[in-house]
Design brief:
Chain B: InterPro entries: ETF_a/b_N, ETF_b, ETF_beta_N, Rossmann-like_a/b/a_fold. The structure holds two protein chains of two kinds. By secondary structure, chain A is of the alpha/beta class. Chain A folds into two domains: about 1-170, 3-Layer(aba) Sandwich (Rossmann fold); about 200-315, Rossmann fold (3-Layer(aba) Sandwich), CATH 3.40.50. Helices cover about 30% and strands about 30% of the residues of chain A. Chain A is built from eight helices and 18 strands. In chain A, the strands form four sheets. A seven-stranded parallel beta sheet of chain A has the order 7-11-6-1-4-5-12, sandwiched between helices. A five-stranded parallel beta sheet of chain A has the order 15-14-16-17-18. In chain A, strands 8-9-10 form a three-stranded antiparallel beta sheet, with no helix packed on it. In chain A, a hairpin with a 4-residue loop joins strand 9 (about 125-130) and strand 10 (about 135-145). The longest helix of chain A has 17 residues, at about 15-30. Chain A starts with a strand and ends with a helix. The relative contact order of chain A is 0.11. By secondary structure, chain B is α/β, with parallel strands linked by helices. Chain B has one domain (about 1-220): 3-Layer(aba) Sandwich (Rossmann fold). Chain B contains six helices and 15 strands. Chain B has a nine-stranded mixed beta sheet with strand order 11-10-9-12-8-1-6-7-13, with helices on both faces. Chain B has a two-stranded antiparallel ribbon with strand order 2-5. In chain B, strand 3 and strand 4 form a beta hairpin.
Chain lengths: ~325, ~250
């Protein structure tokens, strides 16, 4: 019996979420008195995972896995889980994994719990805490099947070092028929994406027009943050739809979310509730966002943001 | 083309979330239920196919009789008929198994669902359904075109989009982008009147076992009051974010 973690990578490099799920998997393996195995696909530095407790890394290298394909990836994870006799398979919650995990669960005949935010509170019955109701609640869910698939919500557990002497084995996976073929990938390069960002700087209609986004981008640059926006802003075409954060837009689970000129409609808050620390800058002291935020400044964004940029630059240099 | 649209019956986004029976049940008291927003995008896309390319659109929900007004609303928007699988929805896998039975019996070419529901946010039903019926699957779909049986679909990826080629039969997990929010339809009086006459077939569930069950619910710990910083003192904000919150 083992616990298998899929450590996701992009262009050979592990995502931060890979270290988070390995850290999480290490603890689950301890709880179950079992060993931890990490699966990597086309990753370069497999030994990096030893730092987080992966004693054994199963490395799959195959050119036909260069582009993510949900059915194919699910099949590879299934093959490794079966070869390793894994009773629990742990994944992160990237857009790709959320696509593959349900297929994997059916393939393994396993119960699947997504959006898991904490270690299992019990292993018999196997009970995990999950986000529900768009972050307005949690459900303590029992997985009753023999095999279990767990999706760990982003930034919900953290990255913890627990170095071990690990070893890496290669695995030849059989590649399944995909049925879905990638034709073209268009990615905004050179920018921090909302999914990867530890910090997100977001702005709303309070900025009055797209021409005023320069300061939002500058603030994001200083912080190494991704930029985002509220729904009305993307509806008005001031910013691309990919930046829309909220109920029907992108969810954000960053460590820091800075909202500038966003009043805080309930649909917006549903998308950002999972962020750890929220800062709001708004002229209206009655804006609902102040009730959801940890820190706030009642003030004009056009005065506050430039000052904040200047002071942050000095802080970063200090 | 026969299209099936999976409709989840969910509390409206603005609903207050409370639990009853010792935090084991969702409290529906005073809660307005709606078509899951992600499903609504997919339903609208189905209407588009129906009108532009010709298709028969069936909507389906796995749930008890209380979900029928939501199915009627989908009929008022323009679906041709509705199916309710008469079962209290328990977990993603058992719902997917019921839907798989409907798909197998109905001979559908295209199944449209939302990427996730806004109540349990599991995001598992479309993918599980695709795997159970062995259809192609595209999740997080933000655009699609059909030509005969070949499909071009676009899905959202981290930091961009990916264009995919695939074929019917197909399951889609849709979201905003598959149609735009401004194109969502509000049922008009004629649609509402017509919906009353459209068939809503209740079918009994097949035997399934749930893979997961909810033992209890919790609400997030109450949040402390916001700490306000003077607009002239952004240094204090930086200090709080660095020393207290430790996020910069």
């Amino acid at each position: 019996m083992s616990v298998l973690v899929f450590a996701d990578s992009a262009e050979g490099k592990f995502k931060k979420s890979a270290f988070e799920v390995v850290s999480y998997g290490k603890k689950v393996a301890e709880q179950l008195g079992s060993n931890l195995v990490a699966l990597t696909i086309n990753a370069n530095n497999n030994e990096e995972l030893y730092t987080y407790g992966a004693e054994k890394v199963i490395a799959v290298s195959n050119d036909s896995l260069a582009t993510f394909n949900a059915k194919v990836y699910a099949s590879v994870i299934k093959q490794v889980a079966e070869a390793q006799g894994s009773s629990v398979v742990i994944l992160d919650s990237s857009i790709d994994t959320l696509y593959a995990a349900p297929i994997l669960a059916v393939g393994l005949d396993a119960g699947y719990a997504s959006n898991v935010v904490a270690l299992p509170s019990a292993t018999s019955p196997f009970t995990v805490k999950r986000k529900a109701f768009s972050n307005k609640g949690f459900s303590n869910t029992v997985i009753s099947t023999e095999k279990k698939v767990i999706g760990v919500a982003k930034n919900s557990y953290g990255v913890f070092e627990s170095p071990v002497d690990g070893s890496t084995e290669t695995f030849e996976a059989t590649i399944a028929d995909s049925g879905v073929t990638s034709i073209k990938v268009e990615r905004v390069t050179g920018k921090v994406t909302i999914a990867d960002a530890d910090i997100v700087v977001s702005a709303g209609r309070g900025l009055k027009g797209p021409e005023n986004w320069g300061m939002v981008e500058e603030l994001a640059d200083v912080l190494g943050a991704a930029t985002a926006c509220s729904k009305p802003v993307s509806d008005l075409g001031w910013r691309p739809h990919g930046e829309h954060v909220g109920q029907t837009g992108k969810p954000v689970a960053s460590n820091l979310y800075i909202a500038i000129g966003i009043s805080g409609a309930i649909q917006h808050l549903a998308g950002i509730n999972a962020s750890k620390v929220k800062v709001v800058i708004n002229t209206d002291p009655e804006a609902p966002f102040f009730k959801a935020a940890d820190y706030g400044i009642v003030g004009d964004a056009f005065e506050v943001v430039p000052k904040l940029i200047e002071k942050l630059k000095a802080f970063k240099q200090a | 083309m026969k299209i099936l649209v999976c409709i989840s019956h969910v509390p409206d986004t603005t609903s207050k979330i409370n639990f009853t029976e010792n935090d084991t049940k969702f409290d529906t008291n005073g809660v307005q239920f709606v078509i899951n927003p992600y499903d609504e995008f997919s339903l609208t896309r189905a209407m588009w196919f129906k009108e532009k390319q010709g298709a028969n659109v069936t909507v389906v929900n796995v749930g008890n009789a209380s979900t029928e007004p939501t199915l009627r609303k989908a009929l008022a928007i323009g679906a041709d008929d509705a199916i309710r699988v008469n079962m209290d929805a328990t977990d993603g896998l058992s719902v997917a198994k019921q839907l798989a039975e409907v798909v197998k019996n109905g001979g559908y070419d295209l199944v449209l669902a939302g990427r996730e529901s806004i109540d349990y946010n599991g995001g598992m039903v479309p993918g599980m359904l695709a795997a159970l019926v062995d259809f192609n699957f595209v999740n997080g779909c933000v655009g699609m075109e059909i030509d005969g049986t070949s499909v071009t679909a676009t899905r959202e990826i981290d930091g961009g989009n990916e264009t995919l080629s695939t074929a019917l039969p197909l399951v889609i997990g849709g979201q905003k982008g598959i149609v735009e929010e401004k194109d969502l339809r509000i049922p008009n009086m004629r649609g509402i009147m017509m919906a009353r006459k459209k068939p809503l077939n209740v079918v009994e569930p097949v035997a399934t076992e749930s893979a997961t069950s909810i033992e209890s619910f919790e609400k997030p710990a109450p949040k402390g009051a916001v700490k306000l910083v003077d607009a002239d003192n952004v240094d204090e904000l930086i200090s709080l974010l660095h020393n207290e919150a430790k996020v910069i």
